[in-house]
Specification:
single chain, alpha+beta, five-stranded antiparallel beta sheet, five-stranded mixed beta sheet, 16 helices
């Protein structure tokens, strides 16, 4: 934007300067030409009184020498034939040459160095009017002067070519400097104005990025020295941004309150479940039920506390856990239900530590979502497997089953579009996907090469740099994993 304003200002000022300065320069050139011819006319008119008094050659010679043009050898006087020798000199009138003291003028001698032809001199004397003719090196002004009745002298003043352009080059240089100065000033002003506009736009962009990064307290100044000179449109944009940020804060606060209220409503049915679970007696199924109810109560309490806490007040939490340990724990939890339903299962690769940059609770929730989908979407007795593969740059978790597989993997990954039957919200895979993307990883759905059903691949990145691609595959056969 700044360069665009500078270019526009330079182009506009240049066109305006040329529109005014070119005609002005041409006018200066024409003025210099007219000034040179006007000076020549004055020089010629200066001899009028002398010629009116006498036509003697010595007197006229002294009069010519007294003028500036005569002193520079640029003036000549073509005298008429003397009064007593009109008839005698008529024969030589047409033989006068183009210069020299001995030359003949309009019937008489020429004083000074003449440059015009005899025909031009005779024309000026015969017509009685002044005109200019081109001669080598410039122009000659021929001015007729009546000396008495019937006789006319012609004064010739030479105007050199350099006199016609004297001062024109200097004028063009001055005008060019003025034009460049105008362009420079306009560029400077446009740069200052563009700097203010760009600064306001950059502040708006920086505030938008900060708000997008989670800084809900960012606001833009709309008054004061910081925004002086900014366009009214950008001030309105800043005011609209502040209004939007305030609205976002209000919406987030309302959303947190709604989440807290909805979570609080779950306490009553959870209390009933806890009392019922306490009356189940002893056994693996009863213990698993009570453990699940206790965990559900903890999760609900955590949701309520997180929802009522403002984002800026949230305490710093150490991020990171051992994925292998979390997966062993969650698979062990689901194994009790698998044994009740007659499901064969296999856990591989979770013997060695596999640190990942996510919170333990978030990873546990993701693993529960993946295993819960197996139990919800496959028939009782369907086998499943969980594999953990740790590489230099990521930890990969594969959950496969022997069920029907995904009919539409793309639809299953879209938030809220999964069809899991009663009690399903379609958010399980979306939660897992967000966890993977928070580390720079991804979630992929496909078909298990071992079990033949669905296979979900969760990749959690452990370092920011791009890791080399890893080919995932099992070297076991179906019979080796699940012997019949």
């Amino acid at each position: 934007m700044r360069w665009a304003l500078i270019k526009a200002a330079a182009a506009g000022t240049t066109m305006v300067a040329l529109a005014f300065l070119i005609p002005l320069g041409l006018m200066v050139q024409q003025t210099a030409r007219e000034r040179a011819f006007t000076a020549a006319e004055r020089q010629a008119a200066a001899l009028g009184p002398a010629l009116a008094i006498t036509t003697e050659q010595d007197a006229i010679d002294r009069a010519v020498a007294s003028t500036d043009a005569g002193a520079q050898g640029r003036m000549a006087v073509h005298l008429p034939v003397p009064a007593g020798a009109v008839g005698a000199g008529g024969a030589g009138a047409g033989e006068a040459g183009a210069g020299g003291a001995a030359g003949e003028g309009p019937g008489g001698p020429t004083i000074g160095e003449g440059r015009a032809t005899a025909a031009d001199v005779a024309t000026a004397g015969g017509q009685g009017r002044a005109f200019t003719v081109a001669v080598p090196g410039g122009y000659a002004l021929l001015q007729p002067v009546a000396v008495d009745t019937g006789r006319t002298a012609v004064v010739e003043v030479f105007v050199a070519e350099s006199d016609l352009t004297r001062g024109v080059s200097t004028a063009w240089l001055v005008l060019s400097a003025v034009a460049l100065g105008l362009v420079a000033v306009s560029v400077l002003v446009a740069d200052r104005m563009g700097g203010r506009i760009v600064a306001s736009a950059r502040r708006l962009a920086a505030a938008a990025r900060s708000l997008g990064a989670g800084n809900l307290a960012v606001r833009l100044p709309v008054e004061g020295k910081q925004v002086d000179g900014s366009p009214e449109e950008l001030r309105e944009a800043a005011h609209a941004f502040n209004t939007m940020a305030d609205r976002v804060v209000q919406l987030l606060a309302a959303e947190r309150e709604l989440a807290a209220d909805l979570s609080h409503r779950m306490r009553t049915p959870l209390t009933v479940l806890r009392l019922n679970a306490a009356s189940l007696g002893h056994g693996d199924a009863a213990d698993a039920t009570r453990h699940a109810v206790a965990q559900l109560e903890r999760e609900v309490d955590q949701i309520i506390r997180s929802a009522r806490r403002a984002p800026e007040d949230a305490p710093a939490v150490a991020v990171g856990c051992d994925a292998a340990e979390v997966i062993r724990e969650r698979v062990g939890f689901w194994s009790a239900l698998a044994e009740d339903e007659g499901r064969r299962w296999q856990l591989a690769g979770a013997e060695r530590p596999a640190p990942v940059p996510v919170q333990r609770g978030d990873l546990a929730a993701a693993v529960d979502a993946l295993l819960g989908n197996v139990f919800r979407h496959t028939a009782v007795g369907t086998a499943f497997s969980v594999d953990v593969l740790a590489t230099d740059g990521s930890v990969i978790v594969l959950v496969g089953d022997a069920g029907p597989g995904y009919s539409d993997p793309a639809a299953a990954l879209r938030r809220g579009e999964g069809h899991g039957g009663e009690g399903s919200t379609g958010l399980g895979l979306d939660i897992v996907r967000k966890l993977a993307e928070s580390t720079g990883g991804d979630l992929a759905l496909g078909r298990s090469a071992v079990l033949g059903g669905a296979e979900t691949t969760l990749r959690l990145r452990t370092r920011p740099e791009e890791a080399p691609p890893v080919r995932i595959g099992r070297r076991r056969t179906r019979g080796a994993l699940f012997p019949k």
